[in-house]
Design goal:
2 domains; mainly beta; 8-stranded antiparallel β-sheet
Length: 125
């Protein structure tokens, strides 16, 4: 079942080709590139865009994202990998949201994203 929830969106100008399948639902930066660091994340790419076009990015709310590793605990904090995928957050890493379903690497999963204030996760679930 698919549901629509309130999300906060913004657009960024794509600085690379974000039309390939490997880009959709990955973390992107304000510069319009797939991001490899939590500290640079602007949100999750929602709609594909060619270089120079506007890309729609979810920075707060419920969306889908690509899991870069197994996530076994519902609600577990997530962080960004070097390739823009989301993985379970380790103690001391920065969290960009929470998993709303368990997932295996490569799964498209529902997540609750909030990159407005990215706190370091203290390691307690």
């Amino acid at each position: 079942m698919s549901t629509e929830q309130a999300t906060k969106l913004m657009t960024v100008t794509a600085a690379q080709d974000l039309t390939v399948a490997d880009c959709l639902y990955h973390a992107v930066s304000l510069a319009g590139t797939i991001v490899g660091s939590t500290s640079r994340v602007a949100g999750i790419l929602r709609m594909k865009a060619s270089s120079g076009q506007q890309a729609s990015v979810v920075y707060e709310g419920l969306t889908k994202a690509m899991a870069g590793a197994t996530v076994t605990t519902l609600g577990f904090p997530l962080t960004v990998t070097a390739s823009g995928w989301l993985i379970a957050c380790a103690s001391g890493n920065y969290s960009v949201g929470r998993a709303l379903a368990a997932a295996a690497s490569g799964d498209l999963i529902p997540v609750m994203i909030n990159v407005e204030n990215i706190p370091a996760w203290p390691g307690v679930a």
